[in-house]
């Protein structure tokens, strides 16, 4: 304590520095008296000017998703359940590090690679495999070098780069986002200064897709708009278009000369298959369309904190792709200079090694399978416990990490305040944070909130 008083004092007051060596045996009370007596004038001066320059800055609200985890931590109730953030948990509700990631980590440690800066665009080996995973290694766009791929700070950072590109090179162009969508999309486009509006997506009556509304709104958007689409496992609704509906969406986007802009944060997590989950993106590319796609490895490899993902822009010529890539680098450089290396090496090593790659696929299937199991158990519990005759089958129709319960804000508040179930206020629950053992408790909480809170 005494030394911290001394060192902080010595930082602020040059005069004390000299005295420091003479104070070896003095206790804290004496030091305080010493500081006050020697420097009283100076201290009161500091206090007088102690009105913060930041006085006008108001308190920001908690983040609607990540803020839920903070509230969860602060609750001491033994039955508490965190179904807020989309992060995979084991059946014991513990965070999960994939075995294949542990293996890749060990190999990287053995190799003892250096920590030099990456190039602005990221690790070349990562950029190659990430585009191949998304589009397919034998996709002609890869051979024709028509894809500009830049490693980003996971899905969020990659979306942000694309947003900056749109703001700079398509001034005034609008991004259309689904209603509802992942909460951070609006923040990303707002901060990048990109105007956005919503297209209809979710129909509360059917707890399904409002396909007609979606098509009408995309048709009505100004020509050349950017249409943000969730590649698979739509967040927060868990409702994806069917393959036939995807084709119609692509028809309309093509007719209107819009640009499809995919956010694909759950590849492999929706169905358990990387290829199946990329089929929407690949279908658009196969039509010869120019496509933007932001990828994330937070969920499918559990690399949440490594911040690893990529932005891909499929262009109609290799020359355009090279120019787009150069401009993405130009945007990244003053934002964060260059991306982190560790997650990129993990992905590149896993995808580049056939044994590790198949192990990854098996673990992804296991994770997707666990989520499907709790989805079924939750549905069974809801159906058997709720005697009102309400149809809960929508839970089974949804896909991916989430279930959109249809609970309103007051009902969600009841889930948290009465039942200690933490979830986002839009009615979304992360099934990845649920165990089979907790399904019955959750069903009780949902039934109570649905029927007893209006
Ligand atoms: N897109 C979507 C659709 C998405 O759900 C997330 C994360 C991201 C992008 C970005 O993830 P990143 O870790 O930046 O690669 N969603 C979960 C976490 C979050 O909100 O940040 C969630 O919805 O809970």
TrEMBL record:
InterPro entries: Aminotransferase_I/II_large, Asp_trans, NHTrfase_class1_PyrdxlP-BS, PyrdxlP-dep_Trfase, PyrdxlP-dep_Trfase_major, PyrdxlP-dep_Trfase_small. It catalyses: L-aspartate + 2-oxoglutarate = oxaloacetate + L-glutamate. One of its GO terms (molecular function) is pyridoxal phosphate binding. Keywords: Aminotransferase, Pyridoxal phosphate, Transferase. It comes from the Eukaryota. Homodimer. Belongs to the class-I pyridoxal-phosphate-dependent aminotransferase family. In eukaryotes there are cytoplasmic, mitochondrial and chloroplastic isozymes. This is Aspartate aminotransferase.
